[in-house]
Amino acid sequence: MAEWCQNKDCCKKKTQNQMRGSKGNKYYQSNKAHSYYSGIACSQGCLYSIIKTNADLLIRTIGEIGKQTIGVDDAWQFKSEWNNNNDTNNRNDYFLINLLMGVKHTLTREQAQTPEQIQQDYGWCTRESSEAKPLAIQLGLTS
Question: Is residue 92 included in any domain, yes or no?
Fold first, then answer.
C-alpha cells in the first residue's frame, strides 16, 4: 500500500486540506492514500482516475477476462433486508434467494449468519454465497 494517493493529479484538486507551507512558500500536496480505496487512492474519484489512466496497462498485465456466467444451479445467495415496522420490532429479515429460479425462501438468523456474525451483532451481514447452495439442497429447494 502506498502512503500517498497515486493519482498524479491529486494535488491539482487544490482543496483547503492539501495546503502546506507558510507565508510565501505555500504549496498543495497529494492526500494520503486510504485503505478503503485499495491503499492507492485518497477518494473514489482519485481511484477512478487511476484506473481510467492505467486501464490498458492493467489489461495487458493481468490479461483480458472473457465473459463469465453463473448458471441457475449456482445462483443461490443469502440476503438480509432491514424490516422497519414503525419503530416497533425493527429487525433484519433473512432470505435464501435464487433470482434465476424466482425463489425467495425465508431463513432464521442462525441459518443466514455465522456464529461470529451473530456474536458481533452484525445484523446486515450474511454467510458467504458459497454456503448458499448446500443449504438450498438441505432445505429441499434444489437438488
Answer: yes
Domain count, the chain: 2
How far from chain centre, in Å, is Cα 73?
24
79 and 54 assigned to the same domain: no
**pLDDT tens column, 105-138:** 999 999 999 999 999 988 889 999 999 999 999 9
Give the CA distances from residue 102 to residues 69, 71, 76, 98, 99, in Å, rounded to whole numbers and listed in that order. 18, 14, 11, 6, 5
User: Which candidate, 41, 12, 54, 48, places its Cα nearest to that of 29?
Assistant: 12
In a domain, 143, yes or no: no
**Domain region containing 106:** 72-138
Residue 115 backbone dihedrals phi, psi, to 5 degrees? -55, -35
* pTM summary value: 0.62
How does pLDDT run across 50-86, given as a tens digit for each residue? 999 999 999 999 999 999 999 999 999 999 998 887 6
Q: Is residue 4 part of a domain?
A: no
